[in-house]
Amino acid sequence: MSGNISENPGVAAAGPGDPGIRRVLSSIPVGGLTPFTTIDFPGRLAGVFYLQGCAWRCRYCYNSELWPFPPDGIRVPPEKILRFLESRRGHLDGIVFSGGEPTAHADVGEWMRAVAASGFATGLHTNGMFPGRLKEVLPLCAWVGMDIKAPFEKYEKITGVPGSGEPCRRSLEILIASGIPFECRTTVHPDLLSETEIVSLAGRIRQMGVTEYHLQIFRPDACPDKDLRGSPRALADITANLRTTLSQMFPIFTVRS
Ligand code: SF4
């Protein structure tokens, strides 16, 4: 463990006890908190802040309680966030900003800077819907996980939002150009995404420069869409053919269940 802020250039160490830092940390709309994970920020022991608010309505979303933007929705009390950061300083390597969609908030850069100044490396989970804001916060990120929902021209059938793929394509270009370590991942429900479409989107992002890609099996437990939950194909495994094809495309490829 390092708790190393040197990976966040330009962020001065202050600590969660600093009054200015406390004010900023208290304003983060954390709807949920994972206190300890070894899988959400590769190579690090990390906590995860799930930020409240997402404008998309992915049918398979298992974080729909995070859809409303503040002041609506749930909120972990700011005091709990402050105590958490104070108690984990020196014990956790990093904090991942997840969601919801962190880049939907104009202040996300300020929040990440305050967490970095408190002694944590910062990571980001994003759907890429705001390329401009992603570009702003990338210098604060030690690692990024980006969702790829579908072939870019077919995003609407997952997100429910026309034209939602194009900004994500731009975000992926920006992320690749940044040189920051990252992965791409796609959640698979066979009723929403065919194997042909998966191979098509995989070929596209490989061509763009993605080297690490993961498929995530649909999770019915918290999915709000009863048709998806009840579909006989909901829990269909990824076929051996598709696994082989994608393994041959990407230096790093896994299926996450
Ligand atoms: S982008 Fe993420 S948080 Fe937003 S609706 Fe889709 S799965 Fe849920």
Question: Any overview of this molecule?
Answer:
The protein has 257 residues and is of the alpha/beta class. The protein has a single domain, classed as TIM Barrel, CATH 3.20.20. Helix content is 32%, strand content 19%. Strands 1-2-3-4-5-6-7-8 form an eight-stranded mixed β-sheet. Helix 1 packs across helix 3, helix 4 runs parallel beside helix 6 and helix 7 packs parallel to helix 9. The two termini are 27 Å apart. The site of iron/sulfur cluster has 11 residues, from loops.
Hey, roughly how much beta strand do the residues contain? 15-25%
CATH top level label: Alpha Beta
The CATH topology annotation reads as TIM Barrel
| CA(first)-CA(last) distance | 27 Å
The structure class reads alpha/beta
Q: Say how many strands there are.
A: 8
**Low-confidence blocks of residues:** 1-6
The small molecules bound here are:
iron/sulfur cluster
CA gyration radius, whole angstroms: 18 Å
Strand order across the largest sheet: 1-2-3-4-5-6-7-8
Helix content: 25-40%
How much is the average pLDDT? 93
What order do the SSEs take from the amino end to the carboxyl end, as H and E? Answer: HEEHEHEHEHHEHEHHE
Number of separate structural domains: 1
Give the second-level CATH assignment, the architecture: Alpha-Beta Barrel
Going by CATH, what is the homologous superfamily? Aldolase class I
Number of helices: 9
Largest sheet: 8 strands, mixed
Principal-axis shape equals globular
